[in-house]
Amino acid sequence: MFNDLKGKRVLITGSTAGMGLATAKVFAKFGAKVGLNSHQKGPEVESAIAELEALGGEVAFFQANLMQTAECEKLVAEFTAHFGGMDVLINNAGGLGGRENLENIDDEFYERVMNLNARSALMTTKFSIPHLRASALESGETSCVISTGSIAAREGGGVGAGIYAASKAWLHDIHRNWVKEFTKDNIRFNIVSPGTIDTAFHDGKSDELRAAIAGTIPMGRFGRIEEVAPTFAFFASHACSGYVTGQILDVNGGQMAP
Question: Which of 16, 218, 229, 256 lies 20 to 30 Å (CA to CA) from residue 151?
Fold first, then answer.
């Protein structure tokens, strides 16, 4: 189904662990050229590279702290220099950034969460656009940007996670703006919006709280990263979704199903 991903140059931010790594594995399996990214280089990087190469993918690692605009620019420059361009950008870097009730939020907290989830995607996309435009022109097919959203963007997030939820809603909305600006360049923009997925995001929750959350999900359990990852491949494949743009795909086991 995803045979047209072979040889595609795919940059995945925040991709040395969790959902980002699971997504990278899908692309490697189908023969893509994958750029891994993290803000730090630890032992997990070599392990991730080995896993992807064993699946048949061509892979390289690029260290960059995407909370800083200059680092976003550096990441895109290094990736495109290494692979000779870019066909797919996946903005997966992000995270909760901490919990604070409204009356405790200060500038430092606000900027940390927004830089982590909004600036990182905004600026990485900005610097990627010329390369994605060139890819579409050269191939005659669409190139694409896919960002990791969240169910929190629609339901507001838990107590203390309001800025995180707002940053994801911001991301959902700005994609629709980019559709208006760049469809003429044959660049597509879509969101993968996970529900409650069993990742490190939920590690601090008690067994009782996890069970209570699972009880609100029609499928009765947390999702797995392996159940989310293939949706990025669907959006990246011109054959599968060449006429799909400006969409939000919920992967949430029926939780708050539209």
Answer: 16
